[in-house]
Each structure stands twice: as structure tokens, then as C-alpha cells.
Amino acid sequence: MLPASLNDIMQEFKSKIGNSFGTFFILTVSSLGSLYLLFFLTTDLRLTQITISGWLAIFLTYCILAYLYIGSTNNDILLFADRLEIVNRLPFFRKHHTFQLDKIKSVKFRHEWTETFGKSIKPNFLKYIVTQFLAPFFFPADYKWIRVSADKDYKFYCFGIEMDYYDNEGLLFEDLFNKLADRGVNVSWTDTSDVYYSQMTRNIENKNQQP
Predict the structure, then answer these.
(1) In this predicted model, what pLDDT tens digit does every residue of 144-188 receive, in sequence order?
(2) pTM of this prediction?
(3) How far apart are alpha carbons 115 and 22 in whole angstroms?
(4) What separation in angstroms does the CA of 200 have from each of 53, 90, 175, 178, 189?
(5) Domains and CATH numbers, the chain
(6) How far apart are alpha carbons 159 and 128 in whole angstroms?
(7) How many CA atoms, within 13 angstroms, populate the side-chain half-sphere of residue 124?
């Protein structure tokens, strides 16, 4: 727990674990269905044949995989006047990295991958199959990270931090981008071909040019 004096000046970009578990469920439910279909076709396995201990083993395995997914893809980000801290409070995934802002060379933000993924794929039918059916198995819709370049490059996943859509409230991923820029940190998005990200970048450049 941070002292009250620090909490007063801290801005916390907190990953919402519930969001990530929902994503994990969406990613796996179709995979589980496909896996069962494979077993059914090759072994004639029926759900009614699975014993209570079998269901318990499946449930525990699923919970462990969900926890590993959540723990490895969710980090809270704390922003102070002079430093950036990356914190993971989940058991077995605990970490606490501190970066002084004046020591940070740059911070790169992962833009929403669905905006630009697959633009060069031809023909359109193949593009649709890859982007709508295959890619979501490997890159969830809330896939995001920041790469902090200081003494070396550090990459932190933060799936549970929301972006500015669906009327989300609180501190958002874009807010972190803007607040770091206001503190003089060199920030950028992985792709600015979409007007949404190019406009944010342009706004920062305009601020920096002002006397």
C-alpha cells in the first residue's frame, strides 16, 4: 500500500481484471468447442461420459490458465510528477519497476491493432478470414502494451486498461499518452495511419512548438 502523501499526487491507470477475464473467456470458448468437436469425431467422446472428477480437473485447469493469462497481461501504471511506476500486485506475478521521467528516452504505445491489421492482405476474402476469424485467436481486442526505453527497452502488457470508447470513464490509455507528453516524455504510437492516433500526435507536436 502506498503512503497517503504519495496517493495524493499519484495518477493510477489500473488494469481491470474482470475485463481481461472476459476477454480470456471469449478467446477460449470457441477453442474449447472446437477441441470437443475434435475429440467427439475421433473418439466419440460425449459430455455425459465425463466424470465429476474429470469436470473438476477441467475447471481447475481452466482457472489456472485464466490466472496465468491475467497475471502476464495486466500491469497497473502509476504516474507521479517525476516518475513512472509499473506495478503488478497479483501473487506469482508481482513486480515493481520505477522509471525517473528524466531518464526515459521514449515510451511507445500499442495502438488498437484492429485498426490497421491486414490492410495489405489480398484478396479481400482472405483478408476477411484472417482478420475476423484467425487473428482474434492470437490478438485479443484489448491487446495493448507500452514499451519504455530507458537504460534498455522494457515492455509491459496492460490489457485491462481501457481505451476511450464505449463511454469509458476514469483514466484511460490515451490519458497516459497525453499526461506523459505534458511531462516532457517522448511518446509515440506504433501506428499513426488512423486519423485518431495521428491527431493525438499532432496535438502534442503543436504543444511542443508553442513558445
Answers:
(1) 999 999 999 999 999 889 888 766 677 899 999 999 999 999 999
(2) 0.80
(3) 21
(4) 53, 33, 10, 8, 9
(5) 12-209 (2.30.29.30)
(6) 24
(7) 0
